[in-house]
């Protein structure tokens, strides 16, 4: 099962509660929009035109944001059959190697996420194929903040971004850089959590990046509960 995570500082507790609240809100809003759309479609032969697209974006936010949270609480699944053939020192070495590989992977995805999002946010993409070596020079055709989503209308209270991102021209739908923001943010947070988890393994605070034997542990928990009864 996932290891219990207990924040040690007031800031840690605040961040942990904030992450859990965001995840709960994303799930709640997705459920509310889907439920409302079903009622409108089958009860009144109408629906929220933007509902499906909104739920799709919210699901992406949930996945990308939840991935880093799962790293923090050691909730990602994995297979450790071969690793468990070694002693504690060998398992630690394998865990550190796995953490290093994950850091490299997360860094590459973070770079790609930034470059993709920057394409819609009027920001420069990075240079370098694998690792950033700088930022590209912005030209007139590089500013693409005018790209919009397909169905979700722009709320009136967000009109202030038009002179900043769209040269004062009006948006009909929300610009793509807003929902796509989760890509660099989520992957940056994922990279940070992977580094944290690897450091915890190195210092001995944790033993692995993954949760394993969850079925066996669940059975053992049930046996202990029955024995207590």
Could you explain how this protein is built, in words?
α3 runs antiparallel to α5 (182-203). The chain has helices at 10-44, 51-72, 88-118, 162-165, 182-203, 214-228, and strands at residues 126-127, 134-135, 148-153, 173-175. It is globular, with a radius of gyration of 22 Å. The chain has 229 residues and is mainly alpha-helical. The longest helix is centred in the N-terminal third of the chain and has 35 residues, at 10-44. It has one domain (10-213). Helices cover 56% and strands 6% of the residues. The strands form two sheets. It has a two-stranded antiparallel sheet. The protein has a two-stranded antiparallel ribbon with strand order 3-4.
């Amino acid at each position: 099962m996932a290891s219990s995570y207990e924040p040690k500082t007031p800031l840690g507790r605040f961040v942990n509660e904030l992450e859990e609240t965001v995840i709960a809100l994303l799930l709640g809003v997705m459920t509310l929009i889907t439920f409302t759309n079903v009622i409108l479609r089958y009860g009144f032969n109408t629906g929220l035109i933007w509902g499906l697209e909104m739920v799709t974006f919210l699901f992406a936010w949930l996945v990308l944001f939840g991935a880093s949270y799962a790293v923090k609480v050691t909730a990602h699944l994995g297979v450790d059959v071969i690793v468990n053939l070694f002693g504690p020192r060998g398992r630690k070495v394998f865990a550190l190697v796995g953490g290093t590989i994950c850091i490299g992977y997360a860094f590459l995805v973070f770079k790609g996420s930034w470059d993709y999002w920057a394409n819609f946010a009027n920001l420069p993409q990075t240079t370098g194929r694998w690792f950033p070596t700088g930022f590209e020079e912005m030209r007139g055709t590089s500013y693409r903040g005018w790209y919009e989503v397909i169905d979700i209308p722009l709320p009136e209270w967000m009109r202030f971004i038009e002179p900043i991102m769209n040269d004062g021209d009006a948006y009909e739908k929300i610009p793509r850089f807003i929902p796509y923001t989760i890509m660099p943010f989520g992957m940056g947070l994922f990279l940070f959590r992977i580094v944290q988890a690897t450091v915890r393994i190195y210092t001995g605070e944790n033993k692995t990046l993954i949760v394993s034997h969850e079925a066996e542990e669940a059975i053992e928990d049930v046996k202990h509960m029955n024995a207590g009864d």
